[in-house]
Every structure is written in C-alpha cells, then in structure tokens.
Amino acid sequence: MLTKSGNQPYLGSATMKLTDGDTRNARRGFVLPAVIFSVAVMSIIVGVALSTASDERRASRATRESMLATYAAEAGLRKTLGSLPDSAMAANVAALNSGDSLDLGWQTMPNKAAYRAVINRVDNGGTNQYMIVVQGRRTEPFGGQSTIVAQVAKGGIRFKFGVYAQGRLNISGGGLSDSFDSDVAAYNALTAGSNGDLAGDSTITLSSSTGR
C-alpha cells in the first residue's frame, strides 16, 4: 500500500511472490554445480585408482623379470663351472695370464633368457685364482638384468683357520679348537688333528681353552 503525506513522496512496500516455476529454476541452478563437482571428484578417484593399478602391474612385472634374469645368471654360472674340466675350456683358461680375461659371449636359453660369462684371472702369479662374472638377462624389450660373481682356484680354495674373527676373539669355559676330516670319519677328540688355528683382526683371548 502506498501513502502520501504533505509534500513527501509516496512511501510504501512491495512483496514479491515466487511462483513454482521460479522455485524449480532455483533448484535446477543448485543441482547442476553439485553434479559437476561430483563428476570431477569421481574422475579424480578413478584416475588415481587406474594409475595405482598400472604402477603395481609394472612393479610386479619388473620383479618377475629380475628374478628370471637372476635364474639365468645362476644357470650360466653352473654351466660355466661344469664346463671348466672340458679340454678346450681348460686349455683356454690355463693360457690366461694374471689380469687376462676370457669372454665366453652371450648364450641364449630356451625361456627367452640369455647369459654371458667372463673369466678373469685375478692372482699375482701364485695359485691360479679366477673371478667368474656372469650376467643374466631377458631378451624381451623390458627384460631385467642380473649379475653373479664367483671365485674359484686351481685345486680349490680352502679356509685355513678353525675360527676367524673380524674383531676381538674371546674363547672361555674349556673351549677346544682342533681339526678333522668328515670325509674320512666322524669326529673323535682322540684322533683330531692340529689344524684348528685361531685368527682375528684384533686381540685373541683364551680362558681355560685349548687350541691345536
């Protein structure tokens, strides 16, 4: 209602009434952004899930390929060690001088794997000692690689100490260090040998103990 007082302008109030159509438009305007936001969030979640699954699949494949490469290297090492007594191989190895290497080349295996063995002579002119380095790999584009190293000597390598410590060595309480050959007979203290040497990088202390 509008009223007029003297020279004052009309004063009044007005009331706006929303119709059903206006209410529906307002709801529609609120729902649309909510739907867009929800779709965006779900897209991010799906993208992260797919990326995680892809990373896990690649990691699993890399682990499998590395294991297969290691198996190939181990097989190559066994094959190389088994071939050393062969006359041709033995002659080639015997001809190596200190510091020389013999590359046996890549050998292909049936399971799409390959290995390469290199024999290096590492002694200084004494007992012939050799370092065998074997690389294993898969031949597929994303195949793994692995390397195994072994050391052998002509006539074999023997550990010449009964006990060896990198630090201090303490033996007490009536301990006994001697030697025996288990290929000959079971251990017998009365017939044991005197090669049970003790060695270490630091102090060796024997308390009521015996070394032979």
What does this entry look like structurally?
The chain has helices spanning 20-83, 87-94, and strands at residues 2-3, 11-12, 101-108, 113-121, 129-138, 145-153, 163-165, 169-172, 176-177, 198-200, 204-207, 210-211. It is of the alpha/beta class and 212 residues long. It folds into 2 domains: 20-157; 163-211, no CATH class. The strands form 5 sheets. The protein has a 4-stranded antiparallel beta sheet. A two-stranded antiparallel sheet has the order 1-2. The protein has a two-stranded parallel sheet with strand order 7-10. The longest helix is centred in the first third of the chain and has 64 residues, at 20-83. It is flat and about 95 Å long. The relative contact order is 0.10. Residues 1-5 and 10-14 have low confidence and may be disordered.
How is the main sheet built? 4 strands, antiparallel
**For the terminal residues, how far apart are their CA atoms?**
124 Å
- Give me the strand/helix succession: EEHHEEEEEEEEEE
Question: Rg to the nearest angstrom?
Answer: 41 Å
Work out the oligomeric state of the chains in this entry.
Answer: single chain
Number of helices: 2
Task: Note the overall shape.
Answer: flat
What average pLDDT do the residues reach? 76
**Overall strand count:** 12
- Poorly predicted segments: 1-5, 10-14
Query: Which strand order does the major sheet show?
Result: 3-4-5-6
